[in-house]
Amino acid sequence: MKYETATPTGEFTLRLSATRRGARLARLLAVQQLHDWGVSGPAADATELVVAELANNAVQHGWVPGRDFEVRMERADDHVRVELSDARGERLPVPAPEPDEGGYGLLLVAALATAWGVKDRSVGKAVWATVPLTSQNRFTSPVPSGSGL
Fold this sequence. Notes:
Blueprint: E1 11-17, H1 20-37, H2 41-61, E2 68-75, E3 79-86, H3 105-112, E4 115-120, E5 125-132
Antiparallel strand pairs: 1-2, 2-3, 3-5, 4-5
Helix pairs in contact: 1-2, 2-3
């Protein structure tokens, strides 16, 4: 008998160390959860990129020694809501008006999501994005799924 391990409630929450390795693990585990939910194609690619960008921002700009960051995803019928929380509530994300080498993250999130924003937490902040599961995505990943990037 074969058993599947999918989150029956459509929710996924994970706390990881605020390191580059933690950000990479957040992306990899989010991809696995999307697979478990049956999300594939451009919607999965877009959600993966949003998780990667927000996790990178949480590690790079929201890092506080000894504090973790949290990844949360909720699966709905027509979208996935991604939320990354960190301990630095005073450092709000602002898209760079003229991105340099590292300033494209929030512009990418804005292009892939139907909405995104920031909410306060008792400690820190949460940056969230709503990624559509339909053809509303204005982006198609040039990287094939499962490429390891």
